[in-house]
Fold this protein.
Amino acid sequence: MSEFKTDPMLEKGEDAHVEDKAASSDLSLDEEFTPAQGRKIIHRVDRRLVTMTGFMYCISLMDRTNLSNAAIAGMTKELKLTIFIIEGVITCLIAIVGYFLLIDFPEKASNSWNFLSDREINFIIRRVNKDRGDAELLPFTYGRFLRPALDLKIWGFAMLFFCSTTVAYAIAYFLPIILEEGMGFSVGAAQCLVAPPYAFAGIVMFSTAWIGDKYHIRGPIVVFNAILGLIGLPRESTVQPKHE
């Protein structure tokens, strides 16, 4: 029996196709900008977008996380209306600033005070299309809006977010109360001891975010953070009250 032989030209064409596909999947390659120039554009977008949204998110959490501190300070009946007025004014001011500084979608980024040039906008759009293929928004339809509800992965992600948020807000609302009433710390000490866990959490957050972005992984990071929660929360419940 004669062996089956492939056409060398066909093999060469297939190899070229594979190489083109691999090149197109590399986000650092672009038809107009070098990788170094592309990184500068991305870093500029990150500094503007991440800094502003992160700052706005911190401000939005101020009133929520202050409730437990107010409770251990004996302010459960009178929550010092002036505090909420100040926080509300700050929130309104930040919202006005955010309206002018937040970056719009890539195809509308030129409206954000000329933050990006047309060439840079086209670079961002090409990169988003290489990564996700959804830089251009499709027209709204109810079918397209409701269709993801049939995907079980959507509900799985929603449940993951629900579980992680439940733990986060439970700690934010009750940690000062646990420190003061459960562990016997003074009011001042309980309010000060709230900060160290968030400082450590910030280190973990930025570290895992950098790893996830660099290596394009999510699952192991979610599992790692869940394990940290499973270790920390039971330990918190077993700590004996502090005796004077």
